[in-house]
C-alpha cells in the first residue's frame, strides 16, 4: 500500500535516482523493525542450504551490500548482492537505466558499477542479518577475457567466508565481451579455476560454499547443452536462469526501447522460462535451478517452479509492484504446494 502511494513520485524521477532514493529512505524503518513483512513459512532445501521460503532478491538491487539488514525485513527467503569486481569501477555513463512502463519493463546498461571487493567485504562485515546471502562476482570492464579467471578467483577469495553461496556472473550484456565467457572453452577454463580455488578455500575455512552460474536468456539450444555439460563436469551446485536480454521482443516501438543494454521485466518472462526449462531437461535434477526473469505476480513465480526451478528471484517486478510482490509469490507457491499435497 505504501509503495503504491509512493510510486507516482518515484516514477517521476530518473530510474537510477529513484532506486537509490528508495533504498536510502526505506533503510532505517526496515532496519529497526518499523516496517516488516509478514511472509508465510514455505521452507525448501536446495544445493545443501535450508531456505525459509523460495523467493529471493536478485543481484543488482544492492550492488555494494549496503542494505542487506533492511532488505532482510521484506520477507525474502534469500538475498543476493553484487555484482562485485576486484577493483572499484563507476560503470557506464548516466543515464543508464530506463523504464518502459507500458510493458512493465526496464532496460539497464549499468555496467557492474561497484565499490570493489575490498570495500564490499568491509560492508559484508557490518551485516547483522543472518539469512542466506548469495554474492555475485564478475570481472572488471578492462580485464581481457584471457585473464578473466584471475578476477573471478580474486573475488571468490575475498567474499568466500561471508557467502552462503557465490554466483559467477558471465551473462551481463553491459560489460563488453563478458558473455563470451559462456562459450564452451572459456567457460571450461573459468570453472576449472574457480572449482580448484573453491577446494582450497573449503579446506581453509572448513566449509564448502556452493557455486552458481548465472546465464543469459538469449542462449541457443547447443549453448545450453554445452553449459549444462560444464556444470555437471565441474560439479557446480546451482544455475540461475536468467539474466537480462538483448532481445527487444515485446517492446518494439515503445519509447526508450532501442536504448542499449539488457531488457528485464514482463517481456522476457517466456524467453527466460524457456531457457530454464531447457536446462531442467538437460540437467535432470543434477544441478539446482533458480528461476529469474519477468516475475511480476505470484503466478509467474509458480510458473518458474513448474518449469524446473527450486527457487526464484525478483528484481524488476519489485520496481513495478513493490515489496508486496514478495509475499504474493510466497503465498502462491505455498498454496500450490498444499494443493499438490
Structure commentary:
The chain has 341 residues and is α/β, with parallel strands linked by helices. It has a single domain (2-340), classed as TIM Barrel (Alpha-Beta Barrel), CATH 3.20.20.70. The protein is built from eleven helices and 13 strands. The protein has helices spanning 2-11, 15-31, 68-71, 117-125, 148-159, 184-205, 221-234, 269-283, 298-306, 316-321, 324-340; strands spanning 44-46, 49-51, 55-57, 78-84, 97-100, 105-108, 132-137, 165-169, 211-215, 238-241, 262-265, 288-292, 311-314. The protein has an eight-stranded parallel β-barrel with strand order 3-4-7-8-9-10-12-13, surrounded by four helices. A three-stranded antiparallel beta sheet has the order 5-6-11, with no helix packed on it. Helix 5 (148-159) links the parallel strand 7 (132-137) and strand 8. The radius of gyration is 18 Å and the shape is globular. The two termini are 33 Å apart. The mean pLDDT is 94.
